[in-house]
């Protein structure tokens, strides 16, 4: 498709591409156009009056917002080599920015996040009301000090997080890269890289997951690096998109005649943070900043709010209603006389203690304490709490969504089984294979090699001999091992022993093929393991470049093969192929290996493949079928011409290429079946069992193949042995198919579901609600071939449909969006780097730690916060009840019972420590919680903090407040002056006793806190002369009256608690007794 002029070629290519994309994206618009026109006709004056003005205002605001942050439409692009200034569009900067605020938005942003909560907004209003003289009650500091404290603490915490984010971004943006210019190499910062720059990537060490990448052919022939600037060439690339597994583009060089066109695919591209295994690479920048695949695939971190905080927010609204009702009742009893409106407001302010401002402070400090305890736990070393606001979520989880590779498995493979149809070799019989290989290669070399043909006669004979004669086992092993050693994408890399004056090439020059310093690199660990295995049985891969392969036989002879074509593994084809020509004999052979589903139809008829694949899968092995086909020179030449033609087509390139390759994939000779085991992480089985017993439903979301995912689900006991597995049809494309499949699935009971990403997409498009409902009843669900964005979609789906809490756990960059979308994200620091653990709310070092994190820490955090929150509310309600009784006795006067410092001191010095010491309380010992995970089920019902428990606390508060106030008034009719001293002392004592009543397991710090607070109170009595009369406090009547009031207010509760413990004990107390 080379044109003599350069103009038409662009024009011919461009409009077609654009028009196709246009049609794909605009389908929805075409459907909406006619309807929109109909609607506009009916608008008139009536419409405007009836609420059209609302719509208009709204749409104006939307327009303004749209203009302010207009999203640029993403288009396909043409990038000229080494000349960013030629780009006709403006592309985004290459900087990374993870911060939530900037200098100007920080204060408003944080304040908005705080006052979004009803609680804080309410306090702001109450505090501001104190500036109005008619509403002023007591001192300003009683209202402003607590509010100021809360806001300062929050601001500091947010600022620290923000600075940390800024430093991380700065570090990333200021990394230096080598850029090639006309004047040679220069260093540029990462944030200054532009589209069209030529960047040099050097050799580095790092990742474990190697992929083979291919350079553009025509630029390889240039004599020097600088010549890249003298040619006129451009890359035409598709628009930025989410799919990380595909890329379509063309490379065109214009200044030659005829023009050179080359097709570009995903294997011609590199990601930004790529590491090169050997040599250096010069690449042209195609996407930058927000348009790179990695950024497009990450979602923004949202501010996570725990369920407990939402529940407490609901309760505070209920309290607020109670407070308003109480104030109205008070004014009504007054008879609405005088300035009753201002009286009403004064009552609202007086009773504002019903809603305690210290609730947020206490809870926030509690959360920090839980975080500290989690990080200090020796049983789960290396655990980091990155989001301190949601530790209670760990105690309420119902769904756990986990990644597979690196999370459940170690991503380390071990070769376990070779099956040849009639005979199967396991780990204990590998030495037999070795003997066969040594023998067969000895035969080959022992014959006098007078000419190239005789060297390989044995193998030649077996191929051409009559097919009816069965081959000997030895020759079949020989063929199978040779196929496994040739059909792969593995490259051997040699570590140079001594670096001679800074040159590392010495190793390659010496052809130093010694075994001790060879490592293999490939994109999948399975392939590396297969090649390592062939090395262990005697056939070693010693060298590999783009067009040749060398194998070393047991006797040390080197066999060379010329690589003619490679067909890489893709998720659609599920197989990979290679065509090689043996240099010694000139034989052309097409080898192929792939998943049993894909290969079953390609290989010749046989009666054992399906059965054996099933057997291996049940053992949890990953299976690969290996096959071969010998080609004649003519067959190959015919194939090559058709293949090259298909590769240059612009439309449906993938389909055309696949069709040509499929013409070869017929009637192939089945060689063997291999089984490789992916080893599980430590203690995965007991951990999954623990979680399942705790009532947590586990979903495995993985990018892996359906077969592999099913294998791991079985071997990790995610699906128990006797459970059925329903495999959802992989290629469901239409609504009807989805309907049939869902119906088939509905008929099955208690079986695990395995579904692939594309089928899932179709089901969600048409039957979202039904599908989620069915899937949620399953004991386990496995989704395979999921893209990162899909993982996040599944999380949000569960949140919307079930209203239960979800937790996502993963270890790689592809799990980040899922981790951020979940209510609680856990990252594992694994081989795939730290990306997931940095984005997560909690990061752990091993999967097995999740059991303790949820059962022990999650349980404690939730139980403690629930107790703490309700107790702090009780503390506010009791004093409001006393205020109400006080006002009603004294002719409904809106006068405060306790002035200035007493109020501040009550909420801080006198009761803060004992109440806060509730964060040390635990109802079950950690070992018990892990031994009986069933206890965790109770937590998910949310019974520790509900309207029921809240009402019980309200009743207690009303009872106690009433007793304290009436008691003080009844017993001290004569000395009314002292009513404040008596009721306040009794109140403080009651609070301390109530804390003791609430505690389930004592801790020495709790005792200290109780006595410390009591001491503080007694000490402060001496200084508070304006409130207390010292001479009276030291008399006997005062002591016995206070004691009796306190006793009446607390004793009944102790008795009730004892009876309740005796007659209906909670589930955990049965265990601990």
UniProtKB/TrEMBL annotation:
Biased composition (Low complexity): 445-459
Any GO MF annotation of the entry: ATPase-coupled intramembrane lipid transporter activity
Gene3D superfamilies recorded: Calcium-transporting ATPase, cytoplasmic domain N, Calcium-transporting ATPase, cytoplasmic transduction domain A, HAD superfamily/HAD-like
Chain residues that bind ATP: 403-405, 527, 569, 593, 622, 702-704, 785, 791, 814-815
Location(s), subcellular: Golgi apparatus, trans-Golgi network membrane; Membrane
Transmembrane spans: 141-160, 318-341, 900-920, 950-970, 976-997, 1004-1024, 1036-1056
Annotated region described as Disordered, given as residue ranges: 444-471
GO CC, alphabetical: endosome; plasma membrane; trans-Golgi network
Listed InterPro entries: ATPase_P-typ_cyto_dom_N (IPR023299), ATPase_P-typ_P_site (IPR018303), ATPase_P-typ_TM_dom_sf (IPR023298), ATPase_P-typ_transduc_dom_A_sf (IPR008250), HAD-like_sf (IPR036412), HAD_sf (IPR023214), P-type_ATPase_IV (IPR006539), P-type_ATPase_N (IPR032631)
Membrane disposition: Multi-pass membrane protein
EC number: 7.6.2.1
Catalytic activity entry: ATP + H2O + phospholipidSide 1 = ADP + phosphate + phospholipidSide 2
Family designation: Belongs to the cation transport ATPase (P-type) (TC 3.A.3) family. Type IV subfamily.
This protein's name: Phospholipid-transporting ATPase
Name of the coding gene: atp9b
């Amino acid at each position: 498709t080379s044109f003599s002029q350069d103009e038409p070629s662009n024009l011919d290519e461009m409009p077609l591409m654009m028009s196709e994309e246009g049609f794909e994206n605009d389908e929805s618009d075409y459907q909406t156009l006619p309807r929109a026109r109909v609607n506009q006709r009916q608008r008139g004056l009536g419409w405007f009056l009836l609420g059209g003005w609302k719509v208009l205002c709204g749409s104006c605001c939307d327009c303004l917002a749209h203009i302010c942050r207009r999203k640029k439409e993403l288009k396909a692009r043409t990038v000229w080599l080494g000349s960013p200034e030629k780009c006709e569009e403006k592309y985004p900067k290459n900087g990374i920015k993870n911060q939530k605020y900037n200098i100007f938005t920080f204060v408003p942003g944080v304040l908005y996040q705080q006052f979004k909560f009803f609680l804080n907004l309410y306090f702001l209003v109450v505090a501001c009301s104190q500036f109005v003289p008619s509403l002023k009650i007591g001192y300003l500091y009683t209202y402003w000090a607590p509010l100021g404290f809360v806001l300062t603490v929050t601001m500091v915490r947010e600022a620290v997080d923000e600075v940390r984010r800024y430093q991380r971004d700065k570090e990333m943006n200021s990394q230096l890269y080598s850029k090639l210019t006309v004047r040679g190499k220069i260093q540029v910062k990462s944030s200054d890289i532009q589209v069209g720059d030529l960047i040099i990537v050097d050799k580095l060490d790092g990742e474990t997951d190697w992929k083979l990448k291919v350079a553009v052919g025509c630029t390889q022939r240039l004599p020097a690096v600088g010549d890249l600037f003298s040619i006129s060439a451009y890359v035409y690339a598709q628009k930025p998109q989410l799919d990380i597994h595909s890329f379509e583009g063309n490379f065109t060089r214009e200044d030659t005649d005829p023009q050179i066109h080359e097709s570009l695919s995903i294997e011609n591209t590199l990601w930004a943070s790529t590491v090169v295994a050997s040599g250096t690479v010069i690449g042209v920048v195609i996407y930058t900043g927000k348009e790179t695949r990695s950024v497009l695939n990450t979602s923004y971190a949202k501010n996570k709010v725990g369920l407990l905080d939402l529940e407490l927010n609901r309760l505070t609204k209920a309290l607020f209603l109670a407070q308003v009702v109480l104030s109205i009742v008070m004014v009504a009893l007054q008879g609405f006389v005088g300035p009753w409106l201002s009286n009403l407001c004064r009552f609202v302010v007086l009773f504002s203690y019903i809603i305690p401002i210290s609730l947020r402070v206490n809870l926030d400090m509690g959360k920090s304490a839980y975080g500290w305890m989690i990080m200090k736990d020796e049983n789960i070393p290396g655990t980091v709490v990155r989001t301190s606001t949601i530790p209670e979520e760990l105690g309420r989880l119902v769904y756990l969504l986990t990644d597979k590779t690196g999370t459940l498995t170690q991503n380390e493979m071990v070769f376990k089984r070779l099956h040849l149809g009639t005979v199967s070799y396991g780990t204990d019989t590998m030495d037999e294979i070795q003997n066969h290989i040594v023998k067969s290669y000895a035969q080959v070399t022992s014959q006098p090699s007078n000419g190239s043909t005789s060297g390989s006669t044995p193998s030649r004979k077996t191929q051409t001999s009559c097919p009816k004669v069965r081959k000997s086992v030895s020759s079949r092993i020989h063929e199978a091992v040779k196929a496994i050693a040739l059909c792969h994408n593995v490259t051997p890399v040699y570590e140079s022993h001594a670096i001679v004056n800074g040159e590392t090439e010495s190793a390659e020059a010496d052809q130093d093929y010694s075994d001790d310093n060879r490592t293999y690199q490939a994109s999948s660990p399975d392939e590396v393991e297969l090649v390592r295995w062939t090395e262990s049985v005697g056939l070693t891969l010693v060298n590999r470049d783009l067009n040749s392969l060398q194998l070393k036989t047991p006797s040390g002879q080197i066999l060379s093969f010329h690589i003619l074509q490679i067909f890489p593994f893709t998720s659609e084809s599920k197989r990979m192929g290679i065509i090689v020509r043996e240099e010694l004999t000139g034989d052309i052979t097409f080898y192929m290996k792939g998943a049993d589903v894909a290969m079953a139809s390609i290989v010749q008829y046989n009666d054992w493949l399906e059965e054996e694949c099933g057997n291996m899968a049940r053992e949890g092995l990953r299976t690969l079928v290996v096959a071969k086909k010998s080609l004649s020179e003519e067959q190959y030449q015919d194939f090559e011409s058709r293949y090259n033609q298909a590769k240059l087509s612009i439309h449906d390139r993938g389909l055309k290429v696949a069709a040509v390759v499929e013409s070869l994939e017929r009637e192939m000779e089945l060689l063997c079946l291999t089984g490789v085991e992916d080893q599980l992480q430590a203690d995965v089985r007991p951990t999954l069992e623990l979680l399942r017993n705790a009532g947590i439903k586990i979903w495995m979301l993985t990018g892996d193949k359906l077969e592999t995912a099913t294998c791991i689900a079985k071997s990790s006991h995610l699906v128990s042995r006797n459970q059925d597995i329903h495999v959802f049809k992989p290629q469901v494309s239409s609504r009807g198919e989805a309907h049939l499949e869902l119906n088939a699935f509905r008929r099955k009971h208690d079986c695990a579901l395995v579904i692939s990403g594309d089928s899932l997409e179709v089901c969600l498009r048409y039957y979202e609600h039904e599908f989620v409902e069915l899937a949620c009843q399953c004991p386990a669900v496995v989704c395979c071939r999921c893209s990162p964005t899909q993982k996040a979609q599944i999380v949000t789906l569960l949140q919307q449909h079930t209203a239960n809490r979800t937790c996502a756990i993963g270890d790689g960059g592809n799990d980040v969006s899922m981790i951020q979308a979940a209510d609680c994200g856990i990252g594992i620091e694994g081989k795939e780097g730290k990306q997931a653990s940095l984005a997560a709310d909690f990061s752990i070092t091993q999967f097995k730690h999740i059991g303790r994190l949820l059962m022990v820490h999650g349980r404690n955090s939730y139980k403690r916060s629930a107790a703490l929150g309700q107790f702090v509310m009780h503390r506010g309600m009791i004093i409001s009840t006393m205020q109400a009784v006080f006002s009603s006795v004294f002719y409904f006067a809106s006068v405060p019972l306790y002035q200035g410092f007493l109020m501040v001191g009550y909420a801080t010095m006198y009761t803060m420590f004992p109440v806060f010491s509730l964060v040390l309380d635990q109802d079950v010992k950690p070992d018990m919680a892990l031994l009986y995970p069933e206890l965790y089920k109770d937590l998910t019902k949310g019974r520790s903090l509900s309207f029921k428990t809240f009402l019980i606390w309200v009743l207690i508060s009303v009872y106690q407040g009433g007793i304290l106030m009436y008691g003080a008034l009844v017993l001290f009719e004569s000395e009314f002056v002292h009513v404040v001293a008596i009721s306040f002392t009794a109140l403080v004592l009651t609070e301390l006793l109530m804390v003791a009543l609430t505690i389930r397991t004592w801790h020495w710090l709790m005792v200290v806190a109780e006595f410390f607070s009591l001491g503080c109170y007694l000490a402060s009595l001496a200084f508070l002369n304006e409130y207390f009369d010292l001479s009276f406090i030291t008399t006997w009547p005062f002591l016995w009256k206070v004691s009796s009031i306190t006793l009446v207010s607390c004793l009944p509760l102790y008795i009730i608690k004892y009876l309740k413990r005796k007659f209906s004990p909670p589930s955990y107390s049965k265990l601990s007794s």
